[in-house]
Amino acid sequence: MPSLSCYIRQGCTPFYQNNSNMKTRLLCACLCCTLAACHNVEKKAEVQLAAARTAYERGDLNTAKMKIDSIKILYPDAFDARRAGIALMQDIEIEEQTNTVAYIDSVLAIMVVRLDSLRPHFVLEKDTAYQEVGRYLVPSQVIERNMHRSYLRFQTDETGKMSMTSIYCGPRNIHHTAVEVSAADGSFAQTPESKDSYETTNQGEHIEKADYKLGEDGGVIGFARLNKGKAIRLKFIGENSFQTILSKDDTQAAADVYELSSLLTTINTLKQNRAEALRKLEFVQKNKARRLSRDSILNKG
Hints:
The chain is an alpha+beta fold. The chain folds into 2 domains: about 15-110; about 120-270, Immunoglobulin-like. The chain has helices at about 5-10, 15-55, 60-75, 80-120, 220-225, 250-300; strands spanning about 125, 135, 150-155, 160-170, 175-180, 190, 195-200, 205-215, 230-240, 240-245. It has a 6-stranded antiparallel β-sheet. A 4-stranded antiparallel β-sheet has the order 6-5-9-10. A hairpin with a 5-residue loop joins strand 5 and strand 6 (about 190). Helix 3 packs antiparallel against helix 4, helix 4 packs antiparallel against helix 6 and helix 5 (about 220-225) packs across helix 6 (about 250-300). The longest helix has about 55 residues, at about 250-300. The two termini are about 60 Å apart.
């Protein structure tokens, strides 16, 4: 085998030196390909980002968000475009929550006007000494006007939670825990056993009350609403039973209180959604402020 000195004398490059040069050339080629690929990825990501900005400017926020999400999915290594996408996404979220608050405010304004028109037709019972939330009743069903009477009383609290109370007054206890209402056509509805019932006596008169929340009333509230302005049969069910008539005013009260309850529920839900939107808006604004502060420090560095 020729010696190294022979290769040198003949002006030849040793094999291991050729191999080293080849590796260097391959490495440079790979680096160039990598840089070209990265540049290509960034260009493609920039196209998506530009489309997102265009959608945002024309108010198509959903399309803008989808375009930004596609950058993260399709081009995870396009770091510059992804950072710009995060910044744009924050602007989109701020606009979304701002729009949500504005929309809720416009709807609330309409609902409040409607509530103000209904309130005079109801009595608010509330002892501020121990009650945080009062309850609305129609004037015809307040306790003072219904002494010694067996009937169904309908009420809603100020947040829109509606309930019904069955009130029995008589010379003896029947220990009722449920009621049934029925119409002349044979249709009827019956409550399940009440989870909240109590009894008392006043000057020889036995008084029993049982409460039922809307949705846990076996459809009795809805049945009374459907028969608003009509007298229907009312049966108290317990150890003994008692039957009477639920008056036209009482079924009308069920319909009126339900309308108020629905309005109060809508207003309460809108207020909760508004508060949630404001919390999200504040959160995004704080994140944006932190990002801008961080970027400012990095640029100065």
